[in-house]
Predict the structure.
Amino acid sequence: MDKFKYETHLHTYEASACAKLSAKEQVRRYKDAGYAGIIVTDHFFNGNTNVPSRLPWEKRINLLAKGYENAKEEGDRIGLSVFFGWEAGFNGTEFLIYGLDKQWLLDHPDIMTWSVRQQYKKVKEAGGMVIHAHPFRERFYIKEIRLFPDDVDGVEVINIGNDNKTFDDRAEEYARKHNLLMSAGTDSHGIEIRHSGVIFDHKLKDINDFIDSMKANKQQLIRP
């Protein structure tokens, strides 16, 4: 049976201040590594973004989406599926948002005022998915570990960017305790040499297929 690998957590230097590679470089890298697709999840404006806050909302959203759009163009050219998402931040606590598009963001300029709970309610109403990224990571910019089991669909239980198996083990224990979906990703900024993500037994049609397949627990986690 064929297996299809997908990266669920990836940054580009078009929109993420911490990224080291362009969107097109990331696409070629993952194609060479045998992946079927990637989800571009650049940092939103409440995270480590390089999109200037002084710009009008429409311009900011267009810049945020540039990494995805460049990746999609290159992916279409060389045969790698590219889907859109983003990573929202709340004082160091971060969430991966899937299933919504640039137009949805353009229509919600009040998003920066939302709480974690409001974010989940709005995303779910629109048919999207929220995954708590690296919930037990310890870094200088994370003031405290905060958990929101009622305001997420799942947990990133493997994150290569953690570089600490203990953080991942705690995340998996937490996900099992609260019966949350489990995801995995590299948190790629263009400098990692190890890969993670999820594997499906079919090629995903779109981001909604990803969400449906995750909800059905059809994913196999790529463990380092």
Summary: The chain has one domain: 4-222. The first strand starts at residue 4 and ends at 10. The domain at 4-222 is CATH 3.20.20.140 (TIM Barrel).
